[in-house]
Amino acid sequence: MNILTFDELVEECKKQEKNIYELIQEIEAADADISVEEVRANVKLHIETMKSTIETGMKSSEKAISQWCGDDCEKLQKRYANNKALLGILFEKIITYSLATIEENLRMGKVVACPTAGSCGIVPSVIIAVAEEQNFDEDTQIDALITAGAIGAIISNKVQLAGAVAGCQAECGVAAAMCAGALTQMLGGNITQILNAVALAMKNLLGLTCDPVCGLVEVPCIKRNPILAIHAVTSSELALAGIESKIPLDEVIDAVRQTGQLMSPMLKESSLAGLATTKTALKLKEKIFG
Amino acid sequence: MKNKGLFDVISPIMIGPSSSHTAGAIRLGLMARCIYNNKINKVEFTLYNSFAQTGKGHGTDKGLLAGILGHCVDDVKTKDIFSVKGIKYSFNFKEDLSRHPNSVDIKINDEMMISGDSIGAGEIRITSINGFSVNLAGQYHTILLMYKDKPGMISKASTIIQDRNINIASLHCDRNEKGGTASMYFALDANPQDEVIEDIKKIEDVYFVTKVGKLD
């Protein structure tokens, strides 16, 4: 993809009078020397995998290799069997799907890294739950996922999407930003609103550390997925109301990059500080790895 | 350096929990299997640093073995791979800070030693084969050969590739000493026909040739 910044994306979309997904699917097709239909068929395959991950995850309560995580989605479903979610069925579905996906990941199930494995529950949960509740067809979901991918790809030109490089802001943070943009696309937002949603989601996750307990993709990664899926929805709702990020998106991404560089390596996937070195975390580490 | 595309971000479809420690491990195993290109009866893995410290919790050991056995990154059989029969395998765990945080040595049938790193987001690189430095990331169709270090070998091999009208994206050579054993690999823009490999094998003083496929 030859588009390096969000300014370039806006310019190109305006010039060609296209939506983000229309422009990006054509660029992808040209880069890979395939048709736009083939690009979309591949995206569809990813959405189908995401759906089957949710389905499998919701039925399982098998523990992770560490033996101390893996039954949160079951607990959540038990609650909703008898209680309505405070914010309604869509909220219930988003957090359930998100937990189902990320728990499948930790028990070595099949997932789509989006953008990474540790953040794989954020984008699918929102796209799929919203599509179900609003009766959006398959094409709308494909448009949304292409939009999400375009956003992640442009961010990754400046920020490597790895906790070890820029902390969790580059993993779950970017997933939430992608998700906010994808949802805004689905709900009919224009390109300005889409990019504002991305900026709002990203701005509020600056400096998010990657300090996984025992170095495993479990604590705090699992619960971070449903929590940030809702964060993405909030960002999208604000943007759809015409609320703007005062700092333009490209500059927000510069801030993510700079913040990532300034963060201590101890807080970037090394498990040398933060949650990973709390008293309880060290006890768990002793228990698992001896 | 290629800019990222859609499917660099929304991908891979993989077995969890970690793109570097699980998907990367499977791909390292797959690459090693592809390079060795013969029946594997015995394999010995040495995991270094973060691979050694947290690998078990991420299924890195299972992933490496699954790759050696030809399972892809999205194959759910990986989880139960230790129940497989017909191959002897063992794992060692070491610390060596001169190595990449996620690196592994894979010794196959006591014959070939392949080293590689998992460099993040499921991407990998093979860094050495039998002591020769290489840099294979699985992004290209690659022909790899070992041969006696002497004049004309590069030209002979590249002529065979050129005759099949295949474009060479890059070429890398290394040798242990002048006149000793040398290694060479070509990264290609197209999948070379089997005849290309057969023809290169026929060059005098070529000890070993293999085709390493592009990873999905």
Give a structural overview.
The complex is a heterodimer of chains A (290) and B (216). Chain A contains 13 helices and one strand; from the N terminus they run αααααβαααααααα. With 290 residues, chain A is mostly helical. Chain A has helices at 6-16, 20-32, 36-59, 72-82, 89-106, 122-134, 138-156, 163-166, 172-186, 191-203, 221-240, 249-262, 279-289, and one strand at residues 110-112. Helices cover 64% and strands 1% of the residues of chain A. The mean pLDDT of chain A is 96. Chain B is of the alpha+beta class and 216 residues long. Chain B folds into two domains: 6-136, 2-Layer Sandwich (60s Ribosomal Protein L30, Chain: A); 141-212, Alpha-Beta Plaits, CATH 3.30.70.260. The longest helix of chain B is centred in the first third of the chain and has 18 residues, at 19-36. Chain B starts with 5 loop residues before the first helix and ends with a strand. The model of chain B has no long low-confidence stretch (mean pLDDT 92). Chains A and B meet through α2, α3, α5, β1 and α7 of A and α1, β1, α2 and α3 of B. β1 of chain A pairs antiparallel with β1 of chain B, so a sheet runs across the interface.
- Name the helix and strand elements of chain A from N-terminus to C-terminus, one letter apiece: HHHHHEHHHHHHHH
First-residue to last-residue Cα separation of chain B: 19 Å
| Helical/strand content category of chain A | mainly alpha
As for the CATH topology of the largest domain in chain B, it is: 60s Ribosomal Protein L30, Chain: A
Question: So, the CATH homologous superfamily of the largest domain in chain B?
Answer: D-3-phosphoglycerate dehydrogenase, domain 3
The number of helical runs of chain A is 13
Proportion in helices of chain B = 25-40%
Q: For the record, what CATH class of the largest domain in chain B applies?
A: Alpha Beta
Gross morphology of chain B = globular
Order of helices and strands of chain B: HEHEHHEEEEEEHEEHE
* Count of DSSP strands of chain A: 1
- Percentage beta strand of chain A: under 5%
* Arithmetic mean of pLDDT of chain A: 96
Oligomer: heterodimer
Tell me the number of helical segments of chain B per DSSP (H or I, 4 or more residues long).
Answer: 6
Strand order of the largest sheet of chain B: 3-2-4-5-6-7
Poorly predicted sequence stretches spanning 5 or more consecutive residues of chain A: none
